[in-house]
Predict the 3D structure of the following.
Amino acid sequence: MPFALIDCNNFYVSCERAFQPKLEGKPVVVLSNNDGCVVSRSNEAKALGLQMGEPWFKMEKLAKQHGIIAFSSNYTLYGDLSARVMSILSTFAPRQEVYSIDECFLDLSGFDPASLTSYCQKMRQTIQRNVGLPVCVGIAETKTLAKLANHCAKKGFFGANGVCDFGLLDDTQRSALFSSISAGEIWGVGRRISEKLLTMKIKTIEDLRTANLERMRSQFSVVMARTVQELNGVSCLELEKVGKARQQIVVSRSFGSMITELDDLSESIAYFTTRAAEKLRGDGSVAASIAVFIYTNPFKEDAPQYNGSITVALSHPSDDTRELIKAALSGLREIYRSGFHYKKSGIQLMGLQGKGTIQPTLFDDTEKQSKSTTVMRTMDAINRKMGKGSVTLAASGIQQRWAMHRGRHSRNFTTDWGELMVVGEDK
DNA sequence: TCTGGGGTCCTAGGACCC
DNA sequence: TCTGGGGTCCTAGGACCC
């Protein structure tokens, strides 16, 4: 049964371009939080040699030379456009797995194999017309091969015009293609595994596809064995159910500037916990424990380094922001050491389970718990209506000395009434 | 001066139990 | 002198992904 993998090209950059057509044809990049690293590049920026994940301050000279345009990341905008793309794609097949913000799998079984290419071209045109984003489609009989086909579609192999269907290749063509691509391009084969594969004389995808399955399993793991099977057309990875609840929720940020005081760290931890608790309630889950971590700046090698972390168990699983903050701050007080310059902090909610499934214990105060649910629901409702952060707990602070820098933020064209695009405005 | 954030899965090893 | 073994559960760490 064929899978399609639809992936937006240079997603964040394309989102910025969708609202500013003058950016078309120019080198454009989108930066990570604090304008730290390059996380999305237009083809023109790639051609200039800008690398993914490269610190922006190292590229600024090059950027000036070539007139590269940089944006701070605008996740509100990207999230909204992503939802539109996914919603359109869901109408093209009975089953969809949204794999990440910019890509999804579709189950194409039952469709006429001969017309898959033209069908997927129609998907591309619809997304382009309705959302203004370019996408590529890979089609193959396993998810791993569909990812690879998508890669080929992007590169224009076999004259692919944004769509590549491995079902149209015979064995000889596949072998030739696989022999021309290095194993590191495969989904699930990262840097470390590539290195180890090289020492085993496995360089290309074809080398990996024809490698001994048992040897791969013992040298690596069952994950690698599955990958090899998938390369041979044996499907091991099913389409995953949509809306599966997460197993952990992490919220962390680097600070805009260094922080030394416990008070400032506490504010950041309370703020991150608030965000995480909102996500938790959005999933309809409760957490059994919360981990807290604080880091100094690892790039400042001459400065004293300290990484602290701790996991605090809650007395009972909860989704109450106040209880989570209380636990997080008690953990923070234990790991905090004065005299260090902190660069980053974060929290992680663990032991997540559906709120309806928890076992009440003898000591649970059910009245208090239902009150807590009401308070949190009200807070969430107000924040949804009036904008994020309208109602927060005092612990999150108002000074927020640790807040990040985002000097190159584009407008929230689609999600904020005050920032809508005005027809005829000078761009 | 300036170096992201949020996830998943697997494995090894320790704790604990009988 | 000689000090079990197997199962389960949990956690930390490592690998990967976008």
Q: What stands out?
A: DSSP finds 14 helices and 13 strands in chain A. The first strand of chain A starts at residue 3 and ends at 8. The first helix of chain A runs from residue 11 to 19.
